Amino acid sequence: MTNYSFRYAISPKDLKRYDTIDLRNEFLVHDLFVKDSIQLTYSMYDRFIVGGIMPVDQSLKLETIPYLKSENFLDRRELGIINVGGKGKVTVDGIEYVLNKKEALYVGQGCKEVVFSTAKGGQALFYINSAPAHKKFPTKQVSQKDAEIIQLGEEKYANKRVLNKLIVNSIVETCQLQMGLTELLPGNVWNTMPAHTHNRRMEAYFYFDLEAGQTISHFMGEPQNTRHIFMQNNQAVLSPEWSIHSGAGTSNYSFIWGMAGENLDYSDMDICPPNELK
Signal peptide: which range, if any (predicted)? Predict the structure, then answer.
């Protein structure tokens, strides 16, 4: 079963009038993992799609949705997949890829059939991002050993973390989609600080591996006009190109960042010093 929803893009001027309910309705993506279901959210920010896939008793095929106006989901799109659960399998046009937790798969534009299933003895949870594509690039699996790993932050600032670049242009050829996974070390809670914006790209954050009973406050908005959204485990948030995207949790956690837009330059950021945020 496939369920889908739609989100409009909004102006930063509109954000100033939003209350908590408005913020959550416009930007928070919840209920990503539903038994034997594909959950998709189509956003007008760079026509980015965020989704969660939880195959339990059956395999799930990625079907097209009305917003795409295409016979197959990937006729004019590319797809990034990261498994955040137990061992799972993704079959792309008859070729099977086994993904362990925190491993990724890039699927190129034009592939006809993508099927998700859980391997014996585990429960796979597939988090997906998709963006429009103008060219077909090869499907490629990215394991942890293939990732570009960077140590970031300091315990002094409670932001010591490990950045795993998975579906990025230094590892996988893509049209515009970029994805990676960041792990906060125990005792560290801040991600992406100093915060930044990048007007050339939108972004989506997916938070997972958060301890039960804990929460994450995701900060968004213009640097001098910020807002926050409290989030739970296995939830995502859309981040417009004009918005910062940063967060702090009541315990450590992991998150996946996915981007699409004007360029593939990971370092293309407009930094906002922490003492200048408002």
Answer: none
How large is the C-alpha radius of gyration of the chain? 18
CA distances from residue 4 to 49, 63, 155, 163, 218 in whole angstroms, order as listed: 10, 11, 40, 30, 24
Query: Mean pLDDT in the chain?
Result: 96
Distance CA 168, CA 153 (A): 21
Give the predicted TM-score (pTM) of the model: 0.96
**Cα 148 → chain centroid:** 17
Q: Cα separation of 190 and 247, whole Å?
A: 6
Domains with residue ranges and CATH for the chain = 2-276 (2.60.120.10)
Which parts of 168-200 are beta strand (E)?
Answer: 178-184, 190-191, 195-197
CA-CA distance, 146 to 159, in Å (whole number)? 24
Distances, alpha carbon 124 to alpha carbons 32, 40, 69, 237, in Å? 13, 17, 29, 21
Residue percentage of the chain with pLDDT more than 90: 93
Binding-site sequence positions:
196, 198, 203, 245
Whether 50 has a pLDDT exceeding 90, the answer reads: yes
Per-residue model confidence as pLDDT tens digits over 230-246: 999 999 999 999 999 99
Locate tokens 């859309």: which residue?
238
C-alpha count within 13 angstroms, C-beta hemisphere, residue 277: 19
Q: Per-residue confidence at 120, pLDDT binned at 50, 70, 90?
A: confident
Q: What is the Cα–Cα distance from 207 to 120, expressed in whole angstroms?
A: 25
